[in-house]
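Dock magnesium ion; give full complex structure.
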Amino acid sequence: MFKKELGIFTFKDLVEYYPFRHIDKTRVNKITSLNPGSDYAQVGGRLKGIIKMGEKGAKRLVAFLQDDTGEIELTWFRGMSWIENTLVIGQAYLVFGRPAFFMGKVQMVHPELEIFAPEKADGKNFLEPIYSSTEKLKARGLTGRAMGKLTYTLMQLLSEKDFPENLPDSILKKYRFISRWDAFFNIHFPSSEEMHAHAVRRLKFEELFFAQLRLGLIRSTRHRSSQGWVFDKVGDLFNTFYSNYLVFRLTNAQKKVLKEIRRDLGTGKQMNRLLQGDVGSGKTIVALLSMLIAADNGFQSVLMAPTEILANQHFHSISDLLRDMPITVKLLTGSSVIRKRREILKACEDGSLSILIGTHAVIEDKVQFKNLGFAVIDEQHKFGVAQRAKLWKKNLLPPHILVMTATPIPRTLALTAYGDLDYSVIDELPPGRQPIETIHRFENKRPQVMDFIKKEIFKGRQVYIVYPLIEESSTLDYENLMKGFEEVKSFFPEPKYWISMVHGKQKPVQKETNMNRFVTGDTQIMVSTTVIEVGVNVSNATVMVIENAEKFGLSQLHQLRGRVGRGGEKSFCILLTGYKISNDAKERLKVLCATNDGFKIAEKDLELRGPGDTEGTRQSGLLNFKLANIIQDRVMLEVAKTIAIQIIDTDPDLSLAENLPIKNYIQLQKGKTVWSKIS
Ligand code: ADP
Ligand code: MG
């Protein structure tokens, strides 16, 4: 019963099934003092009578309880005969429930009740725990309150030694944590509000700390076991490029990340680093400089992008930057012609090529390198783990890997979900960027929006109009897109205007052609689904119109918006919606209009959707804390991470006496639970 309903299997599970609230059981409310705003409350009085009411199918049992101020109705719709048989008229009861008001009368539906015995409130454990229960369990008498009694009985059988300390003394002292036993006892049966807060604080810390420690240990084992190439010098290629061809100054954030990467490359361990940076933060140049370090040390590099369009873009901008440097860069994609392809494969094998840019094509088995040492994966979420693993086999030792993503990962999440990759962040945009102005408009303003677009096009700018596509296969969504396309065409007739359309049902060639026409400026308007979400860089585009913006998630809207504002011109994002939108959607649009900061948006997204929903975290299973909340408790999360790292750095095997409690606890967690099973 317990198992199925609440997932409670053992005594340990029961002890870790925490109450969701406590009530002060010494506080007995007067019946007339209850009001519509009262939350759970407790009243005491004598049972005056019981009656069955209602017709078949809508029967209920009503009992009347009276104290010296008034009367309350207690109502049951289920388990009526059992309750009728247990209740004794004339007996004093203590009743607990949520008061409701009906036709001026106060009542409680399915209250919990017990015989009134005031002496039970001994002044010590006056805070009584209330647990969430299920209807099924309640029907069997296992109410949220009864669960407390069960737990209390269990706790009486246990003692301090059943809760061996799992944190080193120094941490306990430094952070003034109470002992484990005290924490477990007080989270259920606190001697005061203050003790309850202490208990919660300690147990939250425990959850966060051990999660961080486990991740840290995985990371450290990987560091210790996976040997990597040593790039110990920064040579001519890097230096020449840096002083002669880098047309701007790196931002401090870019410098910091570059330092982190350089440090990794010198350790002799393989690097596995996630580089997160908001759209336009300048990740590419960091990748390029890292690849030059690889070249300086005699190694080849690959840069892999999720689409041909992106691979093309990278190739053009990088070969342009390196045009006067003695270094060979080539592009390999699915549509590279055979003769070209043969040439490239040969250059990879004989080592005459230094940097290979491309799509998945670069990791095919046929592509063999003379000495691959560095791999960059752009826009990580479009690549699977299996594909990444393929890279590892391209040389005797795996190449260093830099994974780049623009998906804003909130710090708190990076601390948890991505804990097994080392993490770098560019949290600063290059100077001189004009913030994108974001505006929400209802349907009826469409003509004005179209006029605005005309003005921008007249100035020589380009425009995106994006339609939501929830499911790739949904015909309804396509109808929407086609209707939209026709409508846009009617506003912007050929030959004055030219429009590209790109969507997931097109053949790759078709997609490329349409995209390229927009990139080269042949078309002024791009009508598309979210396929353009990732990485596309048309710096002349200044307007992003998002249709049915209420249907998109916050992060996705931010990604789409990131397609504009990439040049020096002021850019705009216009969110179009109908009148009827949910409060959540309103909140999302408000956030988006208020800020351009990807991190703030990601935090907000996490808050609105909950961590379980955020991309890439679902599989981690590391976010299911019982007490801790990675948003509200982010300060503690950082502390926990810092301490965990410190411990792993100084004592990776946990062999110091000081860390014995940690080691024992981890072993205990790994092994079978020591407590006997309930069933
Ligand atoms: P993303 O991080 O989205 O991939 P990119 O690497 O494409 O961003 O950079 C966006 C634009 O910003 C590029 O045109 C790039 O040349 C430019 N850029 C990068 N770093 C700087 C900098 N430090 N100062 C000025 N412009 C920069
Ligand atoms: Mg990029």
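Observed: The chain is about 40% helix and 20% strand.
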